[in-house]
Design a protein that fits this description.
This protein is an alpha+beta fold and 78 residues long. The chain has a single domain, classed as Translation Initiation Factor IF3 (2-Layer Sandwich). 28% of the residues lie in helices and 31% in strands. The protein is built from two helices and four strands, in the order E-H-E-H-E-E. It has a four-stranded mixed β-sheet, covered by helices on one side. Strand 3 and strand 4 form a beta hairpin. This is UPF0033 domain-containing protein. InterPro entries: TusA-like, TusA-like_sf. It comes from Sinorhizobium fredii (strain NBRC 101917 / NGR234). It holds the Pfam family TusA.
Length: 78
């Protein structure tokens, strides 16, 4: 079975609150149930992104540390 397509959104280099604000804006343009992968270097994203998902009803499917920051996999609410 092929891997599900995901949108990759590079927000590296942006500081709080820009990663969440830009993610929220981008989520408005994608289909319900779609996957979006967020790349960020903002250390506060580990708090802000899960909070954003919880507040807006999206599902945080994965959160991982990377060499340069963090990667989040979010499924847009249906």
């Amino acid at each position: 079975m092929p891997a599900e397509e995901r949108i990759v959104y590079d927000l590296r280099g942006l500081k709080c609150p820009l990663p969440v604000l830009k993610t929220r804006k981008r989520m408005e343009t994608i289909a319900p149930g779609a996957l979006i992968e967020i790349e960020t270097t903002d250390p506060l994203a580990v708090i802000d992104i899960p909070h954003f998902c919880n507040e807006d009803g999206h599902r945080l499917e994965q959160a991982a540390s990377t060499a340069a920051g963090h990667r989040f996999l979010i499924r847009k609410k249906v």
